[in-house]
Amino acid sequence: MQNNNEIKNLRELTELNNYVSKEIDKRLEKFFNLKIAEAKKIDPIYEKLLLDMKKFIQRGGKRLRPTLMLLGYKAAGGTDFEAALDASLSLEIFHNFVLIHDDVMDGDMTRYGGANMTGVYFKRFKKQLPENNARHTAEAIAILAGELNEFFTFEVLTKLDFEKEVIFEMMAHFQKVLFETGAGQQLDVMSSIRGDLNLNKIEKVNYYKTAQYTVTSPLQLGVIAAEGDKKLMNTFADFGAELGKAFQIADDLLGMFGSSRQTGKPVGSDIREGKQTLLMYYAKKLASPLEWKAISTRLGKEHISADDVKLVRSILKECGAQAKAVVAAEDHLQKALGIIDEMQIDKDTKSILIAFSHYCVVRKK
Predict the structure, then answer these.
(1) How many domains, the chain?
(2) What is the domain-level CATH number for residue 215?
(3) Of 95, 116, 336, 359, which is most buried with the most CB atoms under 10 A?
C-alpha cells in the first residue's frame, strides 16, 4: 500500500509528465508541419509520407524520455526550461526512429494500439500488390521513415539556442547512444535466431537496448544541456543501469501477461518473436523438461493461438519463472533507489525520480 509521500511524488510525476507531453506535442506539431510543407514542394507522395509520420508520432507515446531529460536538466542546475524542452524534442523524435526500425526487425505491424508505419503502408499496398510484395514495400517505406526521424533528431539540435560546444556535445551523446543501442538491437535479434538463453547476453541486451537508451541517456542529455557537473553524468549512468534493467524485466512481464490494450501490440507477440528474456531464462531453469518443451516449441512460432499463449503463461506462473522475474525487477529497483538516495540533488527532483523508479516496475501499460 502506498504511503502519503509516495502518492504525492506520483502525483507530481504525473503532473510533470502531462505538462511535458503537452509541450512536446506542440513542438512536434510545429516541426512536422514545416517538414510537410518542404516535402509538398518535392512531391505529393513524399508529403503524404511526412503526414503519416506526423500522425504516427502524435498518436502515442508517454513522452517519458523528455520528462527524464527535464529532470536531469533540473538536477544539474538548469533554469531555462523552455530551452530544455526544445532540446528534449530531439529525444522523442529519436525514440520514434528506433521504434519504427524495431517494429520492422520484429516483423510487427502494430504500435500504440493501431497500425505502425509498416502496417499503414501494408494496408494500402496490399490492394494492388501480392501480399509478400506489399509487405516488403511497406517495410521499405517504414525504414525510410525511421531514417528520416534519425536525421530529424540532429536537425532539431542544430536549431537550438545553445552554445555551439553544448550542441556538439549533445550530438556526440546521440551518436554514442545510437552506437550502443545498435549493439543491443543486434544482440537481441541474434539471440532470438539462436534461441540463446545466456544470462550474460540477456543482461547486455537489457542494458544496451533499454537501460542506456531509456533512462541513462535522457538524464545525461539534461546534464549536458545544463552544462552540469560531469560527476552527475556518472551517477546517472549507475542509476540508469539498474533502473533500466528493472524497466526491461517489467516490460517483458507486461508483454507476456498483459493485454493488447495495455501493450498496444498483439497478445503473444513476444512468443511469436521468440524473445530471449530473463523470464524465459528462469523458465528454462525451473520448468520440467516437458514444460520447457511446450514453451520452446512455441517460441518463434509465426502463428500463435490464444491457447498457445494461455499454456505458456500457465507454465511460467506454475514453475515460478514469473515470480523470479518479479523479484529480479524489484532487486534492480532497490539498487536504483539506493543510488538516488545518495545523490546530491534538489529534494523535489529526487522525489520525482523516486516516483518514476517505482512507476517503471509497477506500470500497467
Answers:
(1) 1
(2) 1.10.600.10
(3) 336
